[in-house]
Amino acid sequence: AKSDLVVKNKSKDEERADQILEHFKDIELMCIQGERSTQTGPDGGQLRTARGLLKFIITQVSTFGGDGEVTEPEWEEFIRICSRYGSNLKLGFFSSKLVSILNGFGREKLSVVDPKSRYGVAFSKYVHGGLEVDFLSHPLLENDSQTDLTGLAGTGIIVDPADLKMKHLPGRYMIHRYNEYHDLTDADEEEILSECCITLELEKKHGKCTGARS
Q: Are 94 and 135 in contact (CB under 8 A)?
């Protein structure tokens, strides 16, 4: 992931802060949707891209019918297969549409998790038969149009946090470089660079669902 800093009507510090946020967003998009590939760079070297969760998870997968309707029994069956391996506590990152569907299920199974006890973030919790899924609405699991419920808009990802890691090449995470490609210009050039990926040690501990519309 790489972000170039270009200052337009902002101070350098303001633009730098904006681009750092965009860089983190690029990393998160890679962790979700990334494709693994090897390509030849302009200098003849190899350029590699990393695989994200949606491509990595292939075993515990549910697709909710041709009409996209999600019933509570279907949802609980999905949780069951996702909990076969690993911890009974899972984390879910869902589209806003999927979250609204879950909110319509049995209220006695839903609660809010104290952010002090879970990663500093206010998750909701779905509990069934001793299985727990802490989940939240992920802003990157959306389409440009809120009325378009295809693809990402009907997607949910469940991961086992004990099996989830971020790795990077030594000294190659959030590097801030100045004038790296400076030539015959008076402008300052800055770059934020990361060479990193997300890893799941055992693919079967995680799951994904697609096709949720109602």
A: yes
Q: What is the pLDDT of residues 102-151, one digit of tens each?
A: 888 877 788 887 766 667 778 888 887 778 888 999 999 998 888 888 88
Q: Which residues contact 114 (CB under 8 A, 6 or more apart)?
A: none
Residue 6's φ and ψ, nearest 5 degrees, are -125, 115
Q: Which residues contact 82 (CB under 8 A, 6 or more apart)?
A: 60, 90, 133, 158, 206, 207
* Helix (DSSP H) and strand (DSSP E) numbers for the chain: 4, 14
In the structure, what pLDDT confidence band is assigned to residue 43 with cuts at 50, 70 and 90?
confident
Query: Which is nearest to 78 in space by CA: 136, 164, 134, 156?
Result: 156
Tell me if 90 sits within 8 A of 82, measured CB to CB: yes
Q: Work out the mean pLDDT of the chain and round it to a whole number.
A: 83
* 12 touches 181 (CB < 8 A): no
pTM of the model: 0.82
